[in-house]
Amino acid sequence: MAIQKRTLNNNIVLITEPIDTAKTVSVGFWFPVGSRFETDKNRGVTHFVEHMLFKRTLKKTAFDIARAFDRIGGYINAFTERDLMCLHATVPSEHLEYTLSIMCEMVTDSVFAEEDIERERKVIESEIITSQDDPEEVAFDELYAVLFPNQGISESIAGSVNDVSLLTRNEIFNWYKDNVSLGALSVIICGNADIEKAALILENLEKRNLPLEILAKPEWAVSKKNIKAPFQQNQIFAAFPIKLPLTEKKINCLTVLNAVIGDTMSSRLFQRLREQNGYCYTVYSFITLFSDCAFWCAYASVAKKNTSIVLKELDNELKKLFSGDLNEMEIEAAKEHIVGEEIIASEDVELRMKRLARLHFSNFPLIVYTEFVKNIRSLSKEDLLFQLSEMLDFSKETIVVYGGSYGFKSFFKCKN
User: Fold this and answer.
1) Model confidence at 230, in pLDDT bands (50, 70, 90)?
2) 22, 9, 124, 32: which is closest to 86 by C-alpha?
3) Is 170 left (phi over 0), alpha (psi -120 to 50) or beta?
4) Superfamily assignment of 224-415 in CATH?
5) Do the Cβ atoms of 134 and 301 come closer than 8 Å?
6) Whether residue 282 has pLDDT greater than 70
7) Are 129 and 156 in contact (CB under 8 A)?
């Protein structure tokens, strides 16, 4: 059945993709608020609110909420990003109304009791400390700090331990009331569902506020930076801004190019840096999209002695691609890889729900997966080469090496 999008009387955007053959349904409550909307005075508050959704409502304890989903074999979780916060659940289809009622209660009637806040504060502080022991996670935070220095979008999503320790109950609860309980909301439902019954439940919620305005558009910083770190390996990033505006065709082209360059085991970077030369264990590339900016990045985690050679090989591969070294065989392989992933994902209602959310918040057409497959297969080599030449603008490249300086200076000395 067709994907439908409508705005309810209370300003909730409802997007649905009915799948009559499914036995499950996935529901996402998406709020257009994330860490980039915070200030230095309330850093980490969105992530804190996300945690508190599971603690207590006017009618249910934290155990009641957990048991409610356990007893039906369902799954509920949440996450916070720089642009968005999402509460989502996947359950047997027969329990959709029950699930919606609990999720509505969580986002409108959470209590934020002082004792719950203090208990969860310790949990979040532990989560932050754990992330600081993960070299890759710390390195990504450092990457954002270099790409967008002194800007909200580059701040850690969870904040620091000190940030979290300073948040008061009023600050946390007021953020919840303004941006979750009454905040702009898009609800996305995918699977075997009675859409009209779901709409009636959602219509009972209060009228929603307009989305928050972004404080400032991110400004990209061109840099070649080595950041010292207490880890055994060096983390290497080579990042390029993606020119706006973003269109569906442009993102499709970049997705295919990303598969060619580093997103698959047969990709250029994986084969060159790992399989052929054994320079590293982890190597891949990725695309990051926000509402007002985007970038493509190659990443490798390497032994410090291999830093210079990996930087050199990475630079060589990217410049070969920029010169037009792209063959039809690898293009077709990359396209069919993406098509295969999409077909596999089509059998997972949660993945389909999240896919619709990404399309919605990127202002792309809400198309079914079969249309997406058709669009990917229709891309030509000329389409890809045009986007490749635009993406790989070496005058805007930012390189970050997080770790020791071994190999960093020698690479740039030889390059210059």
Assistant:
1) confident
2) 32
3) alpha
4) Metalloenzyme, LuxS/M16 peptidase-like (3.30.830.10)
5) no
6) yes
7) no
